[in-house]
Design a protein that fits this description.
This protein is an alpha+beta fold and about 900 residues long. The chain is about 30% helix and about 20% strand. Among the domains are: about 190-330, no CATH class; about 405-500, no CATH class; about 665-730 and about 805-905, Orthogonal Bundle (Lysozyme), CATH 1.10.530; about 730-805, no CATH class. Strands 1, 3, 6, 7, 22, 24, 25, 32, 33 and 34 form a ten-stranded mixed sheet that branches. A five-stranded antiparallel sheet has the order 20-13-12-8-21, with no helix packed on it. The chain has a four-stranded antiparallel sheet with strand order 14-19-18-15, with no helix packed on it. This is EF-hand domain-containing protein.
Length: about 900
């Protein structure tokens, strides 16, 4: 017994004198389940996207079974036999899974968090006294899950507010020590920023000096310059922020930071006001050293500048010149609103599936020799989940058949061994004598669709039989001995059922009121480390718990004959079988949250663990203090819409995500490589960035059908070329420039000065290779002065500045401006992301913006509507005519479409 409890809690227990103990039965709370709390979700849009918190890209069944590798923390029982409302990612799950960052499970809004400067420690006494850290840092996100609308049905689909919890996150101290660690975007910005080391504006007269231009207004004139690394204070919102750390341009500042100079009242729009603007028919006005006309001019200040002035008379003393800087060229200096306390946001902050939540923190159990990085992930709801599921099942009956994306293989499905069975007829003959599956299993349609052709056999209907499809499934179904099977299963079309996620097939809502005392008694009784006398002592309450709703369901899944034990060890073994792992994930448990602290609940374990006033158990007292310090529910509940009494409906987080996202098409690296098969491995990172951006916005971009995706990439392939170029190439032969562009036809000597004569090495007529200055000259000649592109004259440099970039090769100031407006209009899609593509067009070389620029064109021109017309060549041509009307590549784009359709990777 002592050894057992030392293993569970890392503490000693004196079991020498058994005490009599009256049984305490699990009962309902004294308070019945109250009506659901009304969450503050009026403006919370239904979620559209899901993401595995560690971006595991395997299928939903593999994601579930992978959790069996965790060292502890299974749903719904922990290693110590107590209720555990979430799942753990720890050193056990790290194999085959990148566990550096934690990402948001689904679209929603951050409502609360806590981050300690440094995690607290618990002092345990063993052979030596040891302080063991426990991260209690968390983020709480609120989501709204809503069934899809039905065309022609005016009724509002059923919806559910639920929460995702990310516990044991990294300390604030780690972020301070390493500034390169990515920070969550929902933390507020601090007022002090630094100019990025990648800032690329040029200091006039000193081209080697790079940094950030300071403007007199948004998109205004340059009045100062900040070198890379300069620290500044700003205010405001949007693409340009007001510079607060300086009263004006450096040329006008005195050593003490005050500003010098005078302005004539004639150039002040409102001379009688302290804060006004510069107004003049000229582009700039004079700032003078003294209030005299004859005095030397010390600065030229652009019109429309905002100034603060003082004094009276013909001249006003300058007190401030408002200055503005481009926000995204500053290093994001964000930090938590507060540390070492729970922060409940007055205004929740929108967050998308896959956005950064934080990083795994350190946690050391009482019995562990070393701390380990750990994430506890949980999902729960305070709504009436039973009513929601009933309503969802009714709604599912009205949904179209295409929404039924899970094939149900019922218990007793024959699994025909592959040896000697290679035809449908052989499989049919062997099925009667084949092993039978021992449990129901839902298989996602995408998993079946992605099977290689040699693992699918389709049999057409006959006058006497329905059509059938045979699938070769390996290690998904198991037999009565819990042995995983490899073999063929049959889907009889129209007979084998397909179900929708909204059917909640296999899900049970379980109301369970057992408390830690009952669960621990059950655990101790099931463990061989206790004596017969002790087992008998705990038997009454242990049996009551074993026969309770939660344990009864676990026995039905894992141990139908009840001839075994129900501990985390048995649970872990069961999780290695996909059907069992799925069934366990379908348990929705109404229980009191671990994070709702009631001292009496834990004090009730004192006697079980041998603690009393006369014989104190120091380690158990330390453990209870740790439990109290980790709690947060009471600080948060009523402010965010959770039940104040601490009980909620708990869902398996990975199971919930999997049932709704497991069949959605996702752009993977494999898919992107099939679109760009000639790209080298060094470019796979770019492909993954494209996939991530598309997945995060697949519905918004209207790329939600295979036909739309195929039409989209038939065009993108042509625009970017096989090498995925998102920056227009100006390596033109001189004669080609003369043939293609009016400017070079009129100025052939310019074509020969800058275009190449010899293709190999791009050698020009003068014998030298082409350089960047040649590319700039060609771009300015080709696009400069083009009014349809919005570009100013050749000397303006607009041709080069607004050259083709992005997946669709966005070209011209007019189109960059339109994209800027579009991006700002839909800023809710990418909160906290405010780029300025007009001021910094090179941003479109970043893959996420390259994708968005192509999507803006796709959406603005409603090309998705044309794509819906079908797969005929004329449909491709209709889209091409809008993308690039006068191109000679119509046949190439049709060929792209046919090839993508043939491969089927976008289905």
């Amino acid at each position: 017994m002592a050894k057992l409890l030392d293993w569970i809690f890392g503490r000693h227990y004196d079991s020498s004198t058994p005490r009599a103990m009256p049984p305490v039965w699990p009962t309902r709370d004294t308070q019945p389940i109250p009506p659901p709390t009304a969450p503050k979700t009026d403006d919370l849009p239904p979620l559209k996207n899901w993401c595995h918190p560690l971006k595991d890209r395997r299928d939903p069944l593999q994601q579930l079974t992978h959790l069996a590798n965790a060292t502890a923390g299974y749903y719904p029982l922990g290693r110590n036999g107590l209720w555990h409302g979430g799942v753990h990612f720890d050193s056990g799950t790290a194999v085959g899974l990148k566990q550096s960052s934690v990402h948001c499970l689904a679209d929603g809004e951050v409502v609360a968090y806590r981050i300690d400067h440094k995690s607290p420690t618990t002092c345990y006494v063993h052979e030596i006294t040891a302080r063991k850290p426990f991260s209690r840092n968390f983020v709480l996100v609120r989501h709204r899950l809503q069934a899809p609308k039905i065309d022609g049905n005016p009724d509002t689909p059923p919806s559910l507010t639920f929460y995702s919890l990310y516990m044991h996150l990294q300390d604030w101290e780690k972020y301070i020590e390493d500034s390169t660690i990515a920070r969550p975007a929902f933390w507020p910005e601090r007022p002090t920023f630094r100019v990025k080391q990648t800032a690329n504006d040029v200091l006039p007269g000193r081209p080697e000096q790079r940094g950030l231009k300071v403007l007199n207004k948004w998109h205004g004139q340059v009045i100062d310059f900040l070198p890379r690394g300069a620290e500044v204070t700003i205010s405001g919102t949007g693409q340009f922020r007001k510079l607060e750390s300086s009263l004006g341009p450096a040329k006008l500042l005195n050593p003490d930071g005050s500003i010098k100079g005078y302005l004539s009242t004639q150039v002040l729009k409102h001379p009688d006001r302290k804060v006004t603007r510069i107004s003049s028919s000229k582009k700039t006005v004079n700032v003078r050293a003294e209030p005299l006309i004859a005095d030397n001019v010390i600065f030229d200040l652009p019109v429309e500048s905002e100034v603060t002035v003082s004094g009276e008379g013909e001249f006003r003393k300058l007190e401030r010149i408002n200055q503005y800087v481009h926000f995204d060229t500053l290093d994001g200096a964000i930090e938590p609103a507060a540390s070492d306390q729970v922060v409940v946001l007055d205004e929740p902050i929108a967050i998308k599936a896959g956005d950064l939540i934080g990083h795994l923190g350190l946690y050391q159990d009482g019995g562990a020799s070393e701390p380990e990085k750990k994430l506890h992930l949980e999902t729960f709801s305070g709504d009436d989940v039973e009513a929601f599921i009933d309503d969802s099942r009714d709604w599912a009956l009205l949904l179209p058949k295409k929404d039924r994306t899970w094939l149900k293989l019922a218990k007793g499905t024959p699994v025909v061994p592959p040896e000697g069975n290679t035809t449908a007829a052989q499989l049919q003959m062997s099925s009667a004598s084949s092993p039978l599956s021992a449990a129901d299993l839902l298989v996602p349609k995408k998993l079946l669709d992605d099977l290689p052709t040699d693992r699918k056999i389709q049999v057409p209907a006959s006058p006497t039989r329905k059509a059938r499809t045979w699938y070769r499934l390996e290690n998904l179904l198991h037999d009565a001995n819990n042995k995983l099977l490899d073999g063929w299963v049959c889907e009889e079309i129209g007979v084998t059922p397909w179900v929708s996620p909204w059917d909640w097939e296999g899900y049970d809502v379980i109301i369970d009121y057992s408390r830690p005392k009952h669960l621990l008694a059950s655990f101790l009784s099931a463990t061989d480390g206790v004596s017969d006398a002790q087992r008998e002592r705990y038997r009454p309450i242990a049996e009551k718990d074993d026969k309770g709703p939660m344990k009864s369901r676990l026995y039905e899944i894992i141990d139908r004959n009840r001839d075994g034990k129900m501990t985390a060890t048995e649970l872990q073994a069961a999780l290695q079988l996909p059907a069992h792992a799925q069934s366990i994930s379908q348990m929705i448990l109404y229980k009191e949250s671990e994070w709702f602290h009631q001292p009496k609940v834990w004090d009730a374990l004192d006697e079980l663990l041998g603690h009393s006033g006369s014989t104190p158990h120091l380690n158990w007292l330390a453990e209870k203090q740790r439990i109290a310090e980790m709690a947060w529910w009471k600080d948060v509940a009523e402010k965010v819409g959770l039940p104040s009494w601490g009980s909620a409906y708990h869902f398996h987080p990975i199971g919930l995500m999997g049932i709704f996202s497991g069949n959605r098409f996702k752009f993977s690296l494999k898919v992107m490589r099939s679109i760009y098969p000639k790209l080298s491995e060094g470019r796979y990172g770019d492909l993954q960035k494209i996939a991530d951006e598309l997945n995060a916005n697949i519905d918004f971009f209207k790329l939600d059908t295979p036909l739309r995706r195929t039409h989209f990439f038939a065009q993108i392939q042509q625009e970017t070329g096989v090498d995925l170029s998102v920056d227009e190439d100006f390596s033109y032969e001189a004669d080609a420039l003369i043939n293609l562009f009016r400017y070079f036809r009129n100025n052939p000597e310019e074509a020969r000065r800058h275009g190449y004569k010899v293709r190999t090495g791009k050698i020009k007529e003068n014998g030298l290779p082409m350089t960047r200055s040649d590319y700039e000259a060609i771009a300015n000649g080709a696009y400069g002065g083009r009014t349809e592109l919005g570009n100013r004259g050749i000397s303006s440099g607009d041709g080069w500045k607004y050259r083709g970039r992005g997946l669709k090769q966005l070209t011209g100031l007019h189109n960059y401006t339109l994209f800027q407006r579009w991006h700002s209009k839909f800023s809710a899609q990418w909160p906290n992301d405010h780029p300025d593509f007009v001021a910094d067009p090179d941003l479109l070389l970043e893959m996420k913006y390259a994708v968005r620029s192509a999507a803006s064109f796709w959406l603005s021109n409603k090309l998705y509507e044309i794509a819906d017309s079908g797969s005929a060549p004329e449909v491709v041509d209709s889209i091409t005519a809008i993308v690039n009307k006068h191109t000679e590549s119509y046949p190439d784009r049709r060929e792209n479409f046919v090839e993508l359709l043939r491969r089927g990777t976008l289905n």
